[in-house]
Design brief:
- By secondary structure, the chain is of the alpha/beta class.
- It has three domains: 8-44 and 128-243, Alpha/Beta hydrolase fold, catalytic domain (Rossmann fold); 54-121; 252-348, Galactose-binding domain-like (Jelly Rolls, Sandwich).
- 25% of the residues lie in helices and 14% in strands.
């Protein structure tokens, strides 16, 4: 075919990122590059509707009530999802127990919702659907892209990168993480999010300096310089880092401890120190300080959360004033030792 050099690359964002991951597994000889971007990867552990198993009700219901509607034939009509009115917090509070959503709103018409309800634990249903275990013998060069403020599929972004990296030591594999919400690098120039400005068009930088060279190198043999192992945007300093390893070399693991008087420090608290509060399921803690209608507010991931500090069912800790710059890079792990008088609970 005229203009076709026989070389193919693919990319996709979100669910299309999942399809891109699956395309990698095809093993097609013409596929030289693939870029899963914010790829849905494990629906129970960390992507979209579950965060470490905790069901993300508002997002799961809002998305699946539109996206999950059966479409027996091609259509241009987009189902917007269930209209929760001007205040989603009040809507979900009034909805009551989880089974009510199917009985009152979905009318048993969303197959994937029914499957989620039928599999409330990390069983074989979820495990079989994770592509991570199959990301072996990967031949195409890969560039996995995501955003620090993506509450939907940041877990999948990092998990796909690490799976390819660990299971395919000879494959060219790049990680790109910018200061973006879910897919923002395609929708907006990326100059900021909420009240935080980044001082530049981060999306434009990505497209011109990271993405285009990746495809030019693979598809047109125009390789100006070796592909980076990672491109990572540092917020605060507001600059991109071109790295030869992720996590970056030279970082030091540091443990912070939750003290008994709201102190966050590098020193472990005295034995027996704890904080306690009464949590009322009928008065849950909102995660955003303003009313949310359909969907969610992108900027809630870096929004000011101090509105919740005055609630008696929120425990908070803070450090002493910092005496110098602090840069956090690499994985962050929270280890909580908790007990509850109830039958189950979620902490965030």
């Amino acid at each position: 075919m005229p203009g076709n050099n026989g070389k193919v690359a693919q990319y996709g964002v979100s669910y299309l990122g999942f399809y891109t991951t699956m395309g990698i597994l095809s093993g097609h000889p013409a596929l030289l590059g693939a870029s899963p971007q914010a790829p849905v990867t494990d629906w129970f552990i960390g992507d979209d509707f579950h965060h470490n198993g905790a069901f993300f009700l508002m997002d799961g219901f809002g998305f699946m009530s539109g996206f999950g509607v059966p479409r027996p034939a091609p259509t241009k009509n987009h189902a917007p999802g269930y209209d929760t009115g001007p205040d989603a917090y009040r809507f979900h509070l009034a909805a009551g127990a989880l089974p009510n959503y199917n009985a009152r709103f979905l009318k048993n018409g969303i197959p994937f919702w029914n499957e989620m309800m039928a599999h409330p634990t990390y069983d074989g249903f979820w495990k079989a659907r994770s592509p991570l275990q199959y990301l072996k013998n990967v031949k195409p060069a890969t560039m996995v892209v995501g955003g620090w403020y993506d509450h939907e599929d940041l877990w999948g972004t990092l998990a796909v990168y690490h799976a390819i990296e660990n299971q395919n030591p000879g494959t060219r594999n790049t990680l790109v993480i910018g200061p973006w919400y879910h897919g923002q690098w395609w929708f907006e120039p990326g100059t900021g999010l909420g009240d935080v400005a980044f001082g530049q068009e981060t999306s434009t930088f990505y497209h011109e300096n990271i993405e285009l060279p990746f495809y030019n190198c693979l598809l047109k043999d125009r390789c100006d310089k070796p592909l980076a192992e990672a491109w990572v945007f540092e917020t605060g300093a507001n600059k991109w880092h071109r790295l030869d390893a992720w996590p970056p070399k030279g970082v030091t693991a540091t443990a912070f401890h939750l003290g008994g008087k709201g102190q966050l420090s590098k020193s472990a608290p005295a034995s027996g120190t704890f904080a306690e509060y009464v949590s009322d399921p009928a008065h849950p803690v909102p995660y955003y300080g303003a009313a949310i209608t359909r969907g969610y507010a992108h900027e809630y991931m870096n929004a000011d959360q101090r509105f919740a500090w005055t609630r008696p069912d929120v425990a908070s800790w803070e450090t002493e004033p910092l005496d110098g710059d602090v840069t956090i890079a690499g994985p962050i792990l929270a280890r909580l030792v908790v007990s509850t008088s109830g039958t189950d609970a979620d902490w965030s």
